[in-house]
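yo

u said u wanted the structure for the complex thing, so here. seqs first:
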Amino acid sequence: MAEKVFEKAVTLPVPRPRTRVINLTWLGVVPFFAFSLLFLFLPSLYLVFGSFQDETGSFTLANIGDLFQPFILNSYWLSIQVSGVTAIGGVIFGFGLAYASIRGGLPRWIRGALMTFSGVASNFAGIPLAFAFIATLGRTGFVTLLFKNVLGLSLYNGGFSLYTFWGLSLTYMYFQFPLMVLIIAPAIDGLKRQWREAAENLGATSFQYWRYIALPILSPALLGTGVLLFGNAFGAYATAFALTSGTINLVTIQIGAEIRGDVLHNPGLGYALALGMIVIMAVSISISLWLQQRTARWLQ
Amino acid sequence: MKKQRFWPLMMILLGAFYFLIPLYATFEFSLRERRGEYSFDAYGNVLGDPQFRDSFVYSVLLALATIVVSLLLIVPTAFWVHLKLPRLRPVIEFITLLPFVVPPIVLVFGLIRIYSRPPFVLVSSPALLVAGYVVLSFPYMYRAVDTGLRAIDVRSLTEAAQSLGAGWLTILLHVIFPNLRVSLLNGAFLTFAIVLGEFTMATMLNWPTFGPYLALVGQNRAYEPAALAILSFGLTWICVGLIQLFSRGSPEQGQLAGTH
Amino acid sequence: MAFLELENIRKSFGATAAVELFNLQAEQGEFVTFLGPSGCGKTTTLRMIAGFEQPTAGEIRVAGLNITHQPPNQRQIGMVFQSYALFPNMTVADNIGFGLKVAGKTLAEIKGRVEEMLRLVDLPTLGKRYPHQLSGGQQQRVALARALAIEPRLLLLDEPLSALDAKIRISLRNELRAIQRRLGITTIYVTHDQEEALSLSDRIVVMNAGQVEQIGPPFEIYNFPATPFVARFVGTLNVLQARVVDQTQGHLEINGQPIYTAKSLSNAKNGERLSVAVRPEMIGVIQADDGTAHNQLHGTVEDVMFLGAVVRVRLSLSENTLFFDTFNNPHLEMPRLGQSLTVRFPREAVLMFDADSLSRSL
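structre next:
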């Protein structure tokens, strides 16, 4: 399945310039395709093929089989959970914020401020973000101490830790929902006020308006953004690495360890791990495209 | 009317708290270097560290190289596709979105494996890192340029220039580029912001850039990381601010996330 | 008791007054048009009737019941929007049936009613299409069908034809009026197009800057404008500078040529300068003086505009310029440029306003 998806992507553009060498028009895009081939397709394909080869280069399914050990499965599951939770959280919270700032009847500068801040925050990620959250919610972080000194509550004794699932998710949310705000704002602008008025005029309640009109109209955008956020978190490495010093069991952390060569030293398994990530991304994008097509029948 | 504004206001306040508390906390933390009083010592330590300067300058150079290569690849291609090969547009769009499917950690893995043995040994050259960054910049750069090209009438401009006797290079340099200035700056600043703090690829390929330096400081120091986080936030803010300054009127254009 | 009553309606946005002291009584089945330039408050008034805006003061009653503070979704008032506002995610049939669906009607009821509505607006086969697959005219018919499907007590139309091209606008206008008559539904229509207002309405409310200028049937509005604004806004108008010669006899002078008004000029002093107005279509050409009680003016042809059925001529009377219309006739000679010409018009055609108020409204 993954190979098919991937091969389709590879074989589509590349042969064309070759078969029509005489037509000089195609020469104009050769540099771009050559670059993409060398630094995007070949590396990815190398991993795909490597997943099905043993150390001597002959075909094997052993690497794929190795993925099904509990430790590896857990890493995928945790990655999917973190990405799923932060994607859904990001979509809901980001949509709420964007809608409040655009249609909430608040002063216009709030919208401008939110957009600027979102532009910054969606790019403020990786190591500095991890530092910021350690300073906020780490063992001696500002908020942790605030809870302890003012409310007498110890977050860490209560089961919370910044360095596990919920802490990581909370940190990822810092770049997830600003991204949602940026992407969904134009869609909210596209929601005509008159649709709401027409609905009210025909006797619809606010709930009915959302149920039958606003959400169906927004659903392709919501779905598309949701998958984008999912992929955004799924592929994230730096933030998780810096936050947990590489101790949390995410797929990206596993691949990183594989590259550094500090575990197992089994390149075949590393390739298979990477292939699994590509497959999961490809599948989730395909599903969202399919869903988008179903929900946006009225656009065709 | 007032009832309607209550929930939006609550929502915005909640968002503002979530946005601002970590920033405040980090700032407060960064001032705690000296016992018992606030000071900017951590900032002083960071800014005085020669490694900070070296890695920062190195990252800036890499970012500039990335921007140049990315522009040289994307602008002529997007222009050519707009003008002569509109059928290829979906294909190009698809390719430029692939970096979302292939995360940086996966991409760098493949790059290391291919280019660490003959016939191409590139791992010992920063060119490979720049190549990886160029791929990362594809979605942002292409989107920015494509939006810019859609906004101007490429065909008429080109034909007008041709009728006046201009060649392709002249058309690109003197007609298309100036008209795309806002879009190009947009893409360039975004790429700059992304490359500057990039960690994954740099650390895997072992180059002493700003990202790995941050990680190193994070492991060894207590208050300096917070100071660095504040400085990074300020830098990102400047990049985004410059984008907005140049593309006034369409503040939401072209800002997507970087690499995490 | 009138079916729809607006009593002392006021609406201000912050410090600016959008509508001031609006009073209207509309009978059951009446077609009333709010006419005025953009920003005159006509749409705001319509939106207050629909419930999208709250009046700052005053009361709105339908069939004697005060609905001023009723939420829009309980008013049972159908509205057709300027941009149609069809729901893009629903088929034509779903759009028309939406009001019935949220009212909890059964599927069979909805289906029957939708088909009836599609026949009413003459689109019986398009139920399965999506809005973007329809032309502008078709979309507006669907919007009308959707508004009527809920059997509203009142139909509101907010510049429904302004986005359509000229031919469709006129045919749809006639159809709209026919449907309205057939259903006998009380209708409020908002437009800035005076021709639309004149041809459709039982009564017209002319508005300007938040104020009602005049309320009356089209005939009255056109022929007996109560204010200079109404005179200017409805139809075209020649404004001529005149001097009062004898106010008791209504004797005026325009560039040295005498004209008379139908009534005496009770408010004017002899020798005073004032403006008079004459509609172009009230003016006709005569070849020679036949001595009847009409006014006559003599001038030079400056321009001739051939408009098809009508030929509009611009006549120069030194200080003043005068437009008048003659019907096209292939067998008659058209006026030539530079030709000197005498025109005449009845004394009743002279509309009087004092110079100040007229120039203010221009």
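Confidence is low (pLDDT under 50) at residues 249-259 of chain B. Chains B and C do not touch (no CB pair under 8 Å).
cya
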